[in-house]
Amino acid sequence: MNEEIDNPELRVSIMNTNFNGGKDEALGVMSSQQALAKAKELGVDLILVNKGSDPPVAKIGDYSKYRYNQDKKSKEKKKSAKSSELKEVKMSYKIGTHDYDVRKKNASKFLTQGNRVKCTVMFRGREIQHDDLGRDLLVRLSEDLTKIATMEGKPKREGRAVSCFLLPRPDVLKAVGDNKRAAEKAKKKKKEERLSKGRDPGGGDDGMGDILAATAAVAEPILNLDEDDEDDASLDELLGGDDLTDDLFG
User: Fold this and answer.
1) Is pTM, for the whole model, over 0.90?
2) What is the pLDDT of residues 106-126, one digit of tens each?
3) Same domain, 164 and 118
4) Are residues 124 and 87 in contact, defined by beta-carbon separation less than 8 angstroms?
5) Is 242 left (phi over 0), alpha (psi -120 to 50) or beta?
């Protein structure tokens, strides 16, 4: 970094400071002295990011922000790698059209879930002398899935089998990650809504519904007593309420 870079020429770019997917500003090939002078002019660092290329690649930017971004990418990559699994699809070199379509469908499902897929062509006895047909079959499968997968290396022979590995394309992995984050966000939001409504997820009255119901049950007999009193008063009014009626009905 900075004065420690001893390469005479560098391919230089100014680092995107937002780290939001924007592109770096390419400055082209220049001497390391010119690149260092430009970095000092901007008040940042000259960072060597790829010494093995010709010419070596360097970026002008804040080293602490660069390290933070690299560490963040590394953690995301490890997290993504842990969530993926290795699946396997097996078949014979004499496989029929229907069975081949089934294997292709399974491989496609595994890949779109973000998993690596090991594709294996099995041989029995002297069938292994046709291992070239197995390689052709694996290449065919890879080409049929080229929109979502790439083949890692070339098909290799392993005992009485020929196999290869298919890896999900970056856009497939991105879609898997986006879907996973969206699902986690929705789950978290639902949980927060449930907690905000209190103990009663349906009513959201924080238990007041039960209290009001109990209060109404206690008050109902009192209300009925009041109604009886009103009925007695109406009878008194109808009969006149004098001493004679009091003696007859009292």
Assistant:
1) no
2) 999 999 999 999 999 999 988
3) yes
4) no
5) beta
Per the CB < 8 A criterion, the answer to whether 169 and 114 are in contact is: no
Give residues with Cβ within 8 angstroms of 5, minimum separation 6.
32, 36, 46, 48, 58
| Beta pairing, strands 57-61 & 9-14 | parallel
How many C-beta neighbours within 10 Å does residue 106 have?
14
CATH code of the domain in which 104 resides = 3.30.110.10
Q: Considering the domain boundaries, does residue 182 fall inside one?
A: no
Q: Which two tokens stand for residue 105?
A: 């469908």
Q: Are 167 and 150 in contact (CB under 8 A)?
A: yes
For residue 193, tell me if it sits in a domain: no
Q: Which of 1-10, 74-83, 130-139, 182-191 has the lowest mean pLDDT?
A: 74-83
* The amino acid at 100: Y
Give the range among 68-77, 145-154, 194-203 with minimum mean pLDDT: 194-203
Q: Are 148 and 169 in contact (CB under 8 A)?
A: yes
30 vs 23: CA distance, rounded Å: 19
DSSP the chain: -GGG---SEEEEEEPPSS-SSPPPEEEEEEEHHHHHHHHHHHTSEEEEEESSSSSPEEEEE-HHHHHHHHHHHHHHHHHHHHH--EEEEEEETT--HHHHHHHHHHHHHHHHTT-EEEEEEE--GGGGGGHHHHHHHHHHHHHHTTTTEEEEEEEEE-SSEEEEEEEE-HHHHHHHHHHHHHHHHHHHHHHHHHHHTTT-TTT-STTHHHHHHHHHHHHHHHHHHHHHHHHHHHHHHHH---HHHHHHH-
Question: Could you tell me the CATH number of the domain that includes residue 42?
Answer: 3.10.20.80
